[in-house]
Amino acid sequence: MIFKDDEAAILAGFLLQIKAIKLSPAKPFTWASGLKSPIYCDNRITLSYPKIRTHIRQQFVQAILEKYDKPDIIVGVATGGIAQGALIAQELGLPFAYVRSDKKSHGLHNEVEGIVEKGQSAVVIEDLVSTGGSSLKAVDAMRQRGLEVKGMMAIFTYGLQQSEENFKTAKCELTTLTDYESLIRKASEENYITEKDLQSLIQWRLNPEAWSNEQ
């Protein structure tokens, strides 16, 4: 679910403005999985814009306090959730830790960097959720260490059905500041895309694999 509809539209506008999210149905991008996609997202770009970075931090903090009061710790997901999570933890005066995508191959072979303690309540921070697979690995890592994960928060989600099913199976609530539907609506209103583009983007959202195979 998105935190607030009106704020989702504002943030979608920011992401389009700075090209943190690019839409190109006519010349699709190729994801690491090999699938072709009309959208490419790199929310790390927001860190280079103080006004937008501050807006995102404030929205995260407000969402956390309204939904979960104040957890014991903020946990980021590497790599995109590290900087965002640290900014949030600083604002809330809370400890911070992050979860690696894989355990270190040397030293202490850490998967989690920072101090986490059994019994702590945590909110996990991501920058982007696609299928939810890598994001939920971080949630599982916290649960294995005896933490209570209140939920996960992210800047943006594609809202794919697979993601919704994965979060439901994991019994983890996902809240995002904006989402795919808010984004393409804003893109259409601001003339970033044509009506033909909009229809193509809607079709991709319904069935990414079929859309990719047609390209």
Quickly describe the structure.
The protein has 215 residues and is an alpha/beta fold. Helices cover 44% and strands 21% of the residues.
Question: Could you please describe the fold and organization of this structure?
Answer:
There is one protein chain. The protein is of the alpha/beta class and 215 residues long. The chain has one domain: 3-Layer(aba) Sandwich (Rossmann fold), CATH 3.40.50.2020. The strands form three sheets. The protein has a six-stranded mixed sheet with strand order 7-6-5-8-9-10, sandwiched between helices. It has a two-stranded antiparallel sheet with strand order 1-4. A two-stranded antiparallel sheet has the order 2-3. Strand 5, helix 3 and strand 6 form a beta-alpha-beta unit. Helix 1 crosses helix 6, helix 2 crosses helix 3 and helix 6 packs antiparallel against helix 7. The mean pLDDT is 95.
